[in-house]
Fold each of these.
Amino acid sequence: MLQTTGLVKRFDGVEALAGVDLTVGDGEVVAVLGPSGSGKSTLLRVVAGLERPDAGRVLWNGEDVTDVPPHLRRFGLMFQSYALFPHLTVAGNVAFGLRMMGLSPDEVARRTEEALRWVDLDGFGDRPVEGLSGGEQQRVALARTLAPEPRLVMLDEPLGALDRNLRERLVVDTRRLLRERGATALYVTHDHAEADAVADRVAIMRNGRICQTGALEEIRRDPADDWVADFVGAP
Amino acid sequence: MDRRLDRDRPAIGTRRLTLALAALPVAFLGYLFVYPVGRVLWLALAGEPGTAFARVLADPRMRGSAWFTLWQAGLSTALTLLAAFPLTWAVARYRFWGRRLVRALVTVPFVLPTVVVGTAFVALGLDGSLAAILAAHVFYNMAVVVRTVGGLWSRLDPDLVDSARALGASPWRAFRTVTLPLLRPAIAAASSIVFLFTFTSFGVVLILGNLRWRTIEVEIYHQAITFLRLPAAGALAVLQMVGVTAILVLYSRYQERRAVRMRLVAEHQTLRRPTGVRLKAAVAAAVLGTTAAVMIPLGGLLAASFANGGAGWRFLTQPGPLATRPVEAIGNSLAFAAVATLMAVVVGTLSALVVSRGSGLVSRWFDVVLMLPLGTSAVTIGFGFLVALDRPVDLRATWILVPLAHALVAVPFVVRAAAPILRSVRPEVREAATMLGASPRRVFAEIDLPIVARAVAVGAGFAAAISLGEFGATSFIVRPNTITIPTLIFRLLSRPGSVSFAAAMAMAVLLAVLTAALIMAVDRVRAGEVGSF
């Protein structure tokens, strides 16, 4: 279970996070939904350990991990730009995290193939990542993030770089994958439909704060304030 | 493993790692550049303050050298601009068969070692004359003008000139009032580069000047090596550094002013086919004239190497007029190139990593320091090695001194090749590796190193080419048992006799072929996979 308490992050005096309290239960998928500039990505980066908070703590199952370096947290993060390794093949990308775990080469190969099957990319292993289409790159990035079975999966606008048609198809696949793996996940998006389709619970974020959490349907029925009502399109 | 995170920075870019990477390059530059140049300064300033400078300035011989350095650089620059103008115009404006070929051809002299260029004009029987020096400078530097000025010219919006013409300007008037002012920044940049190269010209002037014409560089050599007047040589080196710095400052001023806002268009939109007999003839004349200017010295060199019934080539494997056999010099050059390349690649790659990793003060300051050897003449570096590297152990009697000097000269080129590629790797790629469990050290080994490998290959090619052709620094520190191809060519040229002459020609051809092959290999790697990252 992930828990954050009072996370504050300032950049040049501007508060990107202004005290974020958020809980993600085991096996739960929480979508962080908010307009651009609301601090969603910063929240992920602080939880990941790529940014250090100015105040507040990050807890995993009650243990304080705020001072644990990012590579030792066993959290996974999928970037909006995918950040695929340009010098490695598809399989090389997916195998990276498994190799870092110190698994045997056989085990790495087996789990890499398995992860590629999850995203319907079996047979793509030897290809360079360069020639892949946007949708294929997205799936490689997803397989790479999920393969080492991180304790927490974070996805930063994972479908944001794709066109609408592809997004609608892949959101279903992504949801299925997270469910099947029983993943505990934090999913950042600015798209309501995507948040609704993927998540058990939605956290609405604005100006570095979480304004309201709950199922999107509930929030629509009973918005906390006028801004939230307007943002989620309450009747 | 350090569990505490640095407060100010993303956890991934640990400052300790950056500092660790910088340690070797800092030590390398400190011992091989800062310390020797400091000793040269000390030589010039020690004793009665200013005496060395006063003596140098009062000596008519040295005043003559300084004055010659200035005016020949100015004249060489003007002549280069004039000589390069026809081809610059032709390739910038027109599309014709062989356009790319002639552009590549004019670049060939620029990548050749200066000793080869000097030797080519000796082959034409022109040595000892001012004309030969000026011609060699023009031959060597035309590419700078064609590339810099032609590059901008071919991308100027043709509508600008067309508008001027529609407003009633004659072609000449349109050129003078529209094109030329727009090209001025490129012309200024090219001129300052050519001026810098000819101001610091050493090999060409030493070979072609026959002791009569001397630049400051050549004068430093004579004072230090021939007359053993080290304080005078030191004072000249300081004057030289002041001159170079002044030129570089002027150059960067021009670079800043270059920010004239104008729309540049793609080259394929501006190039036209030459129409009409007169225009076609003019383009043909420009292309053929330039081709002849490049081919005649190179052809002369090749022909001279076969003079005397091929004695020059036969001599390469036999004992000849000098104690050292040419084949030994070739072996030395290849071995030194290998060692120098290795050192330059290690130091250069580490430096490029430092420059590209951080945005902090360390890397910015480091970036500037790295480029200092570029702004210092090779002669000053060689002189510095000669007077300084007897401590803490006397390196001057060892062979390592030569590859060390070559590596120092090559490092900035390796950094320039590697740093842009490293910078092009988005930070998220490193962060993604971190999130997959890679420690900072692992990120470096698994992400940075493999990606830089190809850039290193390019840098290694440049380093090897520089090492093979290096003459300025080597001529100060070379010993009979460490003689290299360029220094042996120079010795052979200073001796009378047709065998020595033919042998020098043959070795110059060999050096030219080796260098050209390396540069072509580098070009292929660069055009191929590096660009696709």
Amino acid sequence: MQTPQIFSFHGGIHPEENKAQSLQLPLGRPRLPSELILPLGQHIGQSSRPLVKVGDHVLKGETIAINNGFLSSCLHAPTSGTITAIEERAIAHPSGLNDLCLILEPDGKEEWTTLNPLTEWQSNDKTDVLAYLAKMGIVGMGGAGFPTQVKLQGAHKNALKYFIVNAAECEPYITADDMLIREKTQELISGIEILQHLVNADQVVIGIEDNKPTAIASLNALLSEQNSPIQVAVVPTKYPSGGEKQLIQLLTGEEVPSGQYPADIGVLCQNVGTCVAVHDAIHYGKPLISRFTTLTGDALKAPQNVDVLLGTPVAHLLEYAESQHNNLHRLVMGGPMMGYTLDSAAVPIVKTSNCILAATKKELPPPAPEQACIRCGMCEQACPANLLPQQLLWFSKSQEHEKAEHYNLFDCIECGACSYVCPSSIPLVQYYRHTKSAIREAREANIKADLAKQRFEARKARQDAEAAEREAKRLARQKATPAKSTTSKAAPSPSKAAPTPAAPISDEAKKLKVDVVIGKTKLKKAQKLLLEAQENEHLEDIKTLQLQVTEQETQLALLEEQLSKLTPVAAPVQTTPSAQSKPAVNDELKKAKIDVALIGVKLKKLNKQLEETPDDQELKGKITNFEIDLKAAQATVDKLGSASTASTAPKAAISDDLKKLKIDTAIAKAAVKKVEKALQKAEEIQAPEVDAIRQQLKEAQQRADELEKALANPQSTDAKTVSTPAQNSPDADAEKKRKIDLAIAKAGIKKAEKNITLLKEQGKNDAEITASEWPKKLTEAQEKLAALEKESTPAITPKVEAAVPANADADKKRKIDLAIAKAGIKKAEKNIALLKEQGKNEAEITESEWPKKLAEAQEKLSALEATDGNTTQKATQELPESKTDSATNDLANKIKKQKIAAAKAQINKLTKRLDNEPEVADSIQQEIAATRQKQEDAEALLAQLTHSKETTQENH
Amino acid sequence: MALLRISSPHTQRAGHRTSWVMQMVILATLPGIAVQTWLFGWGTLINVMIASIAALLCEAAILSIRRRSVAFFLKDYSALLTAVLLGVALPPTVPWWVTVTAVSFAIIFAKQLYGGLGNNPFNPAMVGYAIVLVSFPVPMSQWLGVQSIVASGESLSFLQSLQAIFHHLPNIDGYTMATPLDGFKNKDLVDSATAFQTIEALQSASINSWLWVNMAYLVGGVGLLWLRIITWHTPVAVLGALLIMAGVFHLFDMSNTATPLFHLTTGAAMFGAFFIATDPVSSCTSNRGKLIYGAGIGILIYIIRTWGGYPDGVAFAVLLMNFSAPLIDYYTQPRTYGHKKAKKGLKIGEDN
């Protein structure tokens, strides 16, 4: 047997050993405690899974918890008895937290379960032996509790040069390994041989400090007797030579690379306790149910080593070692250098508990107050990892984590040598632990933030794509709408059929209106709830409620939009009679209608945005603004419409009631505006009453709406009653109704179409459903529309015949119809394209359905065009100049309208900017004013143009 | 049973507190103080007393202004150490107000205003010394003429010393004399050999007296090394660099330079190497860093002595190297266990 070469490591300290106390008495065997507390997590990795339930009777050595995953271990009953509970108990852990434990009440019989030793371990497959060790619950007993089979598997990563058995036991006070070597030399050697058989290392070295002469002698005697190749390397006593990395450096002269494991340089370390446990498991079939533990410290009268069952409460052992409770000042599990204090003596001994240090105040005095670091460098001289502890302290205190990492903070093994020598009593290790955990937390937070960023970017890209798509759709719609209005005007002319009485209001419109009302009440309710939640600060409720509110708002907005779409479509028909006499009113009406449409579109957009970002207060404010604008615009439309109808009736006196209603409406609107202003202000200063104000606003709006409705109704009734003497008016009313129905029907069609597209977007299977249900509805609605159109025409025809301007109106309508038809074609084409994109199978459906529609629409278009041609021909025959005039006027109108829209958009943008950048408010406000001026100019110009157009039409 | 709950380690090396470190350094200056008293009379001791009182008062005043525990910080002996180091560095007959100015500047500005013990980037004693050296050059250059005193046996009495420090000693000029370094500095165009023969300050009596002083500080320094309060790196580097510089230049120009031995045994060479350069707070941390830092001081001492405006340059050399200590620290990290090579600079993210 040769003596291996001993190297050295940097630093290290020589604290008082204090090992003699616990070696005075022979190995003790405490009697059974009243209960054994067996934590499920006695090792590194996943906690074990219990196999028993409360009330089960178990035998000694029976498996009571099984490994739960790869990095886990089994747990066995240390004695026979009954499981009395599975509950949270205080465990021996630096955190002082509780953990799930099995509570075993011994029956005192010590009845062993059947033991199955692995006698043929030499011939068995090595993986089988490893599995057997795992089953026996063997973990590293030096301190970390790393499952042994996992460590052994890892050892095969590289060719194993050294198998080091760690018997250094460098911590002061602890003598458990020393005692184990003395007591179980034969078992230790046998265990080492088994492990060597499993890992097959080039050299097997037992590293032991020179302060254990008895153990060294007995080892040497036995090894030379057996002529074993196992070497004993006696290393000088220096803390922390028992640290894995330090022992490797001492025995091999090699360093474990930073961030790697001993296996990476071909070294495997095992604690002596583990080796003995392996021997017991293989040769006797005994699982790991007991261990050697040192009971020491001046508070104990009989310090000694004990062979103790796992789960024995510390209090039981203290009693066994005759603890003097009055003197006990600090209870440490582990050694004085790296152990951790225990809060109570109720915690159990686990697989890794090598020492219980019951210290008096004199023995381990409370640390002196921390003084300033004078950078004396004593810590640096003591550091076994060759760090600069004083610099690390500096960086830790100033939270310069990057610098601390740069100075290799994570190579600190927390041995405590620096704190031990520090003349300023600085708890350096504590600082390092804190900084390490702070850095780890920051790393985790970084990873999370990165993920969140990725998600956000993906979402933003998606949103942008959606917005672009929406924008494209909107543009397409915008193109389609003016065309529609012209065609709808043209529509009545081809069917100069007999007038039919007023058609009933379609179900769709009714439903829609009911929906709006229901939606409004729901919204109100949700807002109230939200308000309450905000007042009571129920954070989670607020979120969900906010979502609900926004959802409701969007739904409501959608419904309103649909309704508003009905109104503008119906409105032009309503106004036709007035066009004869009051073109100026008509112009205003048109403008108002444009406004309604524009605002509606914007509102929709904003609502969608809001759906995506429900917390955006600014957006919400805008939406409410738009809603108000929309209402106002609608109101003006209504007013104008009714005014025009009223004006058509000669000498129709406006009733007092109506006046009152109008005044009320105006007041309500003013109130709405006031509240709106207040809301804006509140939002600007982020006042807490924003929501309250918003609520008020909603209410005011509602009131205004109701009043408007009321206003609209009596207006119509008034118009009816007052205009009875007039010949036109009953006709006009009926016509109005018809037109409303028409519009409703159109809206129905749109809905159906929308639903179809929606369903199609949802996927292939839905396409079939689509084919079955919605198209039907669509066609029904279309039929209805056609019928209504037929009905509505006769109402106008007399006027067409009566006067030339009426003729012009009809012409317009026709044009609108034409545009609608064109839009229909486009839609159909789009749908076809969409379906084609979706796949081949649907292409068949497509072929069956949409092309038909397309063809129909095309036919319609051609028919309309033909009639249009006819009428225009007529018109041109009569007035060739006016035709061209009106055409140019139309174009100019369009341009102007677009300009107005652009100006409005500009204003919106600017106001938004104003909100965002209050410091440039003045200039922006000036800009806004300028743009408003422009818009007004444009509007005026548009009015002029339309007016001139009307007059030209009238003239002819 | 209320158990104490603290994190590991639970034990500390007994007795080796910061105050112990400071006390040991003060004790290590005793041989030097004894020799200086023997050679120059009571002046040095009186200086040390004045400096100590001023330092403690300043420290206490600033600590109470900073609302720190006065007793706790005074007990760390760091102010006292600064005072002792300044006291022995100042000439024995320097007026009391010079000492007080130096000490109060050292304690208030160089130490407490930076945050007190452990936070001062410069050696407080040397800051104080440099301030008075620049401000009051005349009293600062009045070292007692050792030769005549020792030869005639008429050292300044205690009363005379007191009179010189607190009042005015009319015949002080009869006692003062240039130091050897001063003498050599002002040899003008005379070559070394003649200078050593003719100039009074360079006579063997004078040189030997300074040799004694330096030997005494060497003894104290070795004591500190033995106590492991300082490591050998800094003093060896300082003296080694001074020796090499003096040796090399002496080889090139025998006639105009002094011998390396002269440089090592005159002025504050030993005092600076063992007591000033080793101040842990303002020097480098790693062993390699200490070598570079010490060598820098040694080189600067020689440069200032030979070509600078002052006969001795320990204070300025130390202060200049204090400036560069953090930089040196960044580039002299030791190789940590498990790393192939030491990290250099502060390149974040680099790993090995």
